[in-house]
Amino acid sequence: MTLLAPHNLPFAGAAILLLLIVILQVIGAGDFFDSGDVDIDLDVDGAADGLEAGGFLESAFSLLGIGRVPFLIWFMVLLLVFMAIGVAGQELAISLLGAPLHPALAALLAGMGALPVNGVLTRPLERILPQDETSAVGLDSLVRRDAEIQTGTARTASPARAKVKDRHGHPHFVMVEPHDPQAELNEGDTVLLVRREGETFFGVHYESKLLGLD
Predict the structure, then answer these.
(1) In this structure, what DSSP letter does residue 103 have?
(2) Greatest CA span in the chain, whole angstroms?
(3) pTM of the shown model
(4) Fewer CB within 10 A of the terminal residue: the chain, N end or C end?
């Protein structure tokens, strides 16, 4: 068995991509689990938000493990599972049929098998991995959620770092300014995020008269 055999080229490609991601992380992108990074916006939740709660697409994301762990970790596990299933499947085909499957067919079958297997594998990872790395949720889904000011005092044009949990219970760190230009949000305050502009969220205290205004 060799990963570089012609019938295993799709899986060799997955292995190379996985290795490349690891190398880029080591030399350029920093720690997988750096808790100091502000979250980036991914559109996975954005697609799900267009459906009613409990919709098919949202259920599919949950079943496949999307959003349970940081997206990069999810993708790396998927590559590993795809490669393992594909190579094993080709060996099985050789044993049973006397010849390997066409690489395209083998890749299709391996991909169909890898997605649900990856979803199963990411469930225990959800309890093991640090959860303050970006996971596959859209920033818009964090609006209308409570956030706790972690560091500093938030003022207009001077945001402070805050922690907010998504619907999966995973914490994210975002920058927050007061919705009321005259207000201040102090360290330790719990505020409601009412809107965002770019990477900055705007929050109000629950006793604020502005609560509920656009």
Answers:
(1) H
(2) 76
(3) 0.54
(4) C
Residues 6+ apart with CB under 8 A from 1: 87, 91
Tell me the C-alpha distance between 95 and 79, whole Å: 24
Six token digits for residue 93:
């085909």
CA–CA gap between residue 62 and residue 39 (Å, rounded): 20
Ordered structural domains, the chain, with CATH: 6-128 (no CATH), 139-204 (2.40.50.140)
Strand bridging mode 146-151 / 160-165? antiparallel
List C-alpha distances in Å: 202 to 42, 118, 149, 209: 19, 36, 12, 15
Cβ 137 vs Cβ 45: under 8 Å? yes
Closest C-alpha among 149, 158, 214, 213 to residue 185: 149
Q: What are the residue ranges of helices labelled H in the chain?
A: 9-24, 44-49, 56-63, 71-97, 103-128
**Rounded Cα–Cα distance for residues 186 and 96 (Å):** 68
State which amino acid sits at residue 11: F
2: its two tokens: 């060799």
Distance from C-alpha of 160 to C-alpha of 187, rounded to nearest angstrom: 8
Residues belonging to the chain: 214
Give the other-Cβ count within 10 Å of 151's Cβ.
11
Nearest to 80 by CA among 44, 124, 110: 110
